[in-house]
Amino acid sequence: MLRKIKIFAGGQLLRDLRSTVLLQVLARFFQIVAVIHAARCLDDANGESSEALGWAQYLQFILTLGLDIVAVRHLAAKSLALKDVVPSIFTGRLLLYSFSALLWLVFLFSGDFSTQQRSLWMAAILNLLALGMNFQWIFQGLQKMPVFSCIHAGTSFLISAYFLVFFRPGIQAGTDLWVMGIFQSIATILTWCYLKRAYSLSLFHSKWYQNILKWIHEGMPNWVFGLLYNTLITIGMLTIRTFAVAPQFSNHEDAYATLYKLGMAAQFILAFAGSVIYTRI
Q1: How far is CA 275 from CA 128, 219, 280, in A?
Q2: 33-73: per-residue pLDDT in tens?
């Protein structure tokens, strides 16, 4: 038994878990401090940023169509090569998210919105594009999550540092979303360039839809479950501010908001651990 424990403790799985989760713990709790600081600088506008980001994240999840989990499954099992998976998913998602962003922009500029509201929701669109073109599934399928954790944690540290250094009370609604969107977009572009070069990948495929339809059918059960679960998370995210400022909790707004952020951070860290373990199951 001791020999088995020693082998497990020195195994690749535990090493990946340690390096992946440790980075996320550090990044997330540094981010909590920065987000609380940003929320105080935004004051009443903080709820507007949370709402816009919540909708962007929810739409992003809807448009994944269960492809991530299918790609991870096949890459981990080596039933499909990276060069057979990436071009179809990359091309399909680039078209899908670009079209969604365009529709969002048309709605914004055809509706009766103020300049500030348009700026806020345009920042949410940028975050939607950055989130939609994510690359976690590649590192997860190749069982290289520590590398992804470094990229993700590094981006989080940069965003958090920017909040702490440059944000001051009275900033405009959506400023935080612009910062997040710009940093995440830069990280996304650079990482895709790295993946293209490191694995000699082609990112585009003229017949991307042929494989996509088959993979969507395969991933549909997981997607439906995830959509229902994500709906619960999003409802909580969009309503926490209303709950926190209710009269009976008026003296505890910061406490409730902080506890909510801590809970989300803990869930995110556990999800990262799960993403390392999933490919071994």
Answers
A1: 22, 16, 10
A2: 888 888 888 876 666 887 888 889 889 988 999 899 899 99
Contact (CB, 8 A) for 122 and 185 = no
Cα dihedral sign for 135, 19, 159, 245? positive
Contact by Cβ (8 Å): 155, 184: yes
Contact status, residue 65 vs residue 71, Cβ threshold 8 Å: no
Query: Cα(66)–Cα(20) distance, rounded to whole angstroms?
Result: 24
Nearest Cα neighbor of 72 from 85, 91, 58 is: 85
pTM higher than the cut 0.85: no
Question: What pLDDT score does 105 carry?
Answer: 93
CA of residue 149 relative to chain centroid, distance:
12
Task: Using 50 as the pLDDT threshold, list the residues of the chain that sit under it.
Answer: 249-252
DSSP secondary structure letters along 181-222: HHHHHHHHHHHHHHHHHHTT-----TTHHHHHHHHHHHHHHH
Rounded Cα distance between 268 and 275, Å, is 11
pLDDT of residue 245: 53
Q: How far apart are CA 263 and CA 255, in angstroms?
A: 12
Mark residue 21 as left, alpha or beta (left: phi above 0; alpha: psi -120 to 50; beta: remaining). alpha
Q: For the stretch 231-245, what's the b/e string if a residue is b when 16 or more beta carbons lie within 10 angstroms of its beta carbon? A: eeebeebbebbeebe
The token pair at 164 is 């702490």
